[in-house]
Design goal:
Elements (H helix, E strand, L loop, with lengths): L2 H6 L9 H7 L2 H32 L1 H4 L5 E5 L11 E2 H6 L6 E15 L6 E9 L9 H5 L9 E5 L9 H8 L2 E5 L2 E9 L10 E5 H8 L5 E2 L1 E6 L5 H11 L4 E5 H15 L2 H30 L1 H9 L4 H38 L7 H27 L3 H4 L1
Parallel strand pairs: 4-8, 5-7
Antiparallel strand pairs: 1-10, 1-11, 2-9, 3-4, 3-10, 5-8, 6-7
Helix pairs in contact: 2-13, 3-11, 3-13, 3-14, 11-14, 13-14
């Protein structure tokens, strides 16, 4: 017998790991523990997936537009509640040589009348010029001419069903006489945008149509997207514009605007708290079930452990044994948890319109937390073993 076999002998009687034999001694208890670990994995992955999906939904309007910089009001909160500022501020940005093009965007909430039922539904209205359209969505680019018409509109076909079967009506009739804020518009096409945290529906209008249906008299905008020339540094150009322009506006990079939008929803809604609480609960549930399993296993084999203690095996042996058992549980419970979480993500995507997806960083983080919770449960379970005295048992 070589040195390795001598070292492994206490852990692998008969060539089978002792920790595995201990757990499989009670198969029902083992599978309950694995189920508890899987439940914790599902809950943690789903919480993270929903949170990340909500953050993607929050910045959908920004991601759908081009431009390395954005101009916003100094009173900006989030993209649908920002205060308007004069459009000439955006035009002034063209004075910088590094600025290639500017795209004014008007934003307001409005009311869309369901053409089938007459139900009034809250929508987000985007107003842009046909010759200065910042949206990079393929359907919008293919139908820019609609935005030049005095009453033309493009409808987000990912709106909920309560908004009406607009896409179906368009396929049959080619155009729909719609109503926004009780003003007539003609829906001549659709685009795919999707829900955000602010609203479930979106309608894209030409600049003049937007001003008409919102009764806006002044030439003000809510957001200005700024496209730079090749080789320009966005941070440097933003700094120069902030130095030159009046203090009623602020210019920041696209990434900073996305970060600000996410921070608003994390700080001003319970999203962050809910995700944190869900993660803690998931770890707690998995730890409790793993602890109960390991504690019961120790209690059932206390006489055998006491015998090993009497033979001279120290605390380190038993601690490693229990931690090995604790490591087996996530090894069997993690993969089923991941697969079930993927199924839940699919349901959330198809039925709820929530863009959930499984990412490698989230998966690795949950795997690490699962191992940590099971290891903590194993460490706590060894207290029962450390309290056992062979003299008391025999």
């Amino acid at each position: 017998m070589n040195v390795f076999q001598k070292l492994a002998a206490p852990w692998t009687p008969g060539g089978i790991p002792l920790a595995w034999l201990q757990l499989m001694g009670e198969k029902k208890r083992f599978f309950v523990a694995v189920g508890g670990v899987s439940f914790g994995v599902i809950l943690m992955l789903f919480q993270l997936g929903i949170f990340q999906a909500f953050m993607r939904m929050a910045v959908r309007p920004i991601v759908a537009m081009k431009g390395e910089l954005a101009m916003i009001s100094r009173d900006f909160q989030y993209i649908m509640t920002t205060e308007p500022f004069p459009e000439r501020r955006l035009i002034q940005a063209l004075a910088l040589p590094d600025v290639k093009e500017v795209y004014p965007v008007m934003l307001r909430f409005g009311s869309w009348r369901n053409p089938d039922t007459g139900l009034q539904c809250k929508v987000a209205l985007f107003g842009v010029s046909a010759n200065a359209n910042p949206f990079i969505l393929p359907e919008v680019l293919a139908q820019e001419g609609v935005l030049a018409l005095p009453d033309g509109a493009l409808y987000d076909e990912l709106c909920p069903a309560k908004f009406g079967n607009v896409a179906g009506l368009l396929r049959r009739e080619g155009a729909i006489e719609g109503e926004v804020n009780k003003y007539r518009v003609r829906v001549l096409g659709t685009f795919r945008h999707g829900r955000t945290l602010a609203t479930n529906g979106h309608i894209l209008l030409g600049a003049e149509t937007f001003r008409r249906v919102t009764e806006r008299k002044s030439h003000t905008i809510e957001v200005g997207m700024i496209e730079l020339r090749a080789g320009a540094n966005p941070a440097d150009v933003a700094r120069q514009l902030n130095e030159r322009l009046p203090p009623d506006v602020e210019v920041l990079t696209r990434e900073d605007l996305i970060r600000r939008e996410k921070n608003y929803w994390q700080a001003n809604t319970p999203l962050g708290f809910i995700v944190t609480a869900g993660m803690v609960i998931a770890m707690f549930v998995g730890s409790v079930i793993a602890y109960q399993t390991l504690y019961t296993d120790i209690n059932d084999h206390l006489r055998e452990y006491a015998t090993l203690k009497a033979l001279g095996l120290g605390r380190g042996f038993f601690l490693r044994l229990i931690l090995q058992e604790a490591a087996i549980l996530p090894a069997f419970g993690f993969i089923p948890g991941v697969l079930l979480a993927m199924g839940l993500f699919h349901v959330a995507n198809t039925l709820g319109g929530i863009p959930t997806r499984l990412t490698l960083p989230d998966t690795l983080m949950v795997f690490g937390l699962t191992i940590l919770s099971c290891a903590l449960a194993g460490f706590l379970a060894t207290k029962r073993l450390r309290a056992a005295d062979p003299a008391d048992i025999f």
